[in-house]
UniProtKB/TrEMBL annotation:
SMART domains: HTH_ARAC. It holds the Pfam family HTH_18. PANTHER family: ARAC-FAMILY TRANSCRIPTIONAL REGULATOR, HTH-TYPE TRANSCRIPTIONAL REGULATOR EXSA. One of its GO terms (molecular function) is sequence-specific DNA binding. Keywords: DNA-binding, Transcription, Transcription regulation. This is AraC family transcriptional regulator. InterPro entries: AraC-bd, Homeodomain-like_sf, HTH-like, HTH_AraC, RmlC-like_jellyroll. SUPFAM superfamilies: Homeodomain-like, Regulatory protein AraC.
Length: 289
């Protein structure tokens, strides 16, 4: 389920407190980026097929593609402060600040635990943004934006520390070089899309664009496009009651037999078996065991 985010302030940043339901609700995603801080209680945070136990002080990073939802424990409901914001806010400042949110959902750890040295300064900045947007004193927009940028810089430094300077420079150069093409693919993967379209966006020949995808992303254009379509199909299977045929065409596949064949070969389950295993109701049953 995709949620539409509206911003209540004269800047595309929202801050709100939220206590998740004790019963698991449908997973969702949205166009904004999001950072959440658990300030009380306990529960579980779901990101697609990943599950994290939640404790006070834990921080969660959410991009604009990954399905997610939190659930409170029955006897100790959790409460969060969430900050969500338009990614263009970072793009206007320094595009590398988007790198912590440009993750591969299958391998990314969405949780920064309360035991991490980073949790305390991040938590303080989240609370500062909440307080500024709640009080709305003179200059609050500048203060909230400043705190958000500082928060994102800390995240950027955190995720870059595990790489050498060479590896990090290569990653940032690749991000800048490939961003126009990746943006086009992410916007249009549900449509018929060809390598020639990407080559035009990169101002390259199709053969050079193909080589660039393979060199910089470690996979072909077709594989990258298939990855996005499979992930979209997984989201639709989990969060909607649409038929497999509707999921097939809604996620960009042009043929039902090829959709079934490719989904099974990549995911290891048929589309309907995947829905049965990872739907909201299936997750509820699994957590009861």
């Amino acid at each position: 389920m995709r949620l539409t985010i509206t911003y209540e302030n004269n800047i595309p940043i929202n801050a709100f407190r939220w206590t998740p339901n004790k019963k698991l609700e449908p997973l969702h995603y949205h166009s904004s980026l999001e950072i959440g801080l658990c300030i009380s209680g306990s529960g579980v945070f779901y990101f697609g097929e990943k599950q994290y136990r939640v404790a006070i002080g834990d921080i969660f990073i959410v991009n604009n593609n990954e399905l997610h939802i939190a659930k409170s424990d029955e006897c100790n409901p959790s409460t969060y402060i969430f900050i969500n914001f338009d990614p263009r806010l970072l793009l206007e400042e320094e595009e590398s600040l988007l790198l912590p949110f440009a993750y591969n959902s299958d391998h990314f750890d969405n949780r920064i635990t309360s035991a991490s040295p980073l949790a305390e300064p991040l938590g303080a900045l989240i609370e500062e943004i909440w307080n500024e947007l709640d009080a709305r004193q003179e200059g609050y927009i500048s203060m909230a934006k400043s705190a958000l940028l500082e928060l994102c810089v800390l995240l950027l430094r955190h995720y870059s520390t595990g790489m050498s300077k060479f590896e990090w420079k290569r990653m940032t150069d690749t991000f800048r070089r490939m961003r126009p093409a990746l943006t086009m693919v992410e916007d249009r993967f549900r449509e018929p899309l060809e390598l020639t379209d990407i080559a035009e966006a990169l101002l390259l020949s199709p053969s050079r664009a193909s080589h660039l995808f393979q060199q910089e992303l470690g996979r072909s254009f077709k594989d990258y496009l298939l990855h996005l379509r499979i992930n979209e199909a997984k989201r639709m299977l989990i969060s909607t009651s649409l038929s497999a045929a509707d999921v097939c065409f809604g996620s960009g596949f042009q043929s039902i037999p090829s959709f079934y064949r490719l989904f099974k070969s990549i995911v290891g389950l048929s589309p309907l078996d995947y829905r049965n295993k990872f739907s909201v109701h299936a997750i509820i049953e699994n957590t009861k065991q």
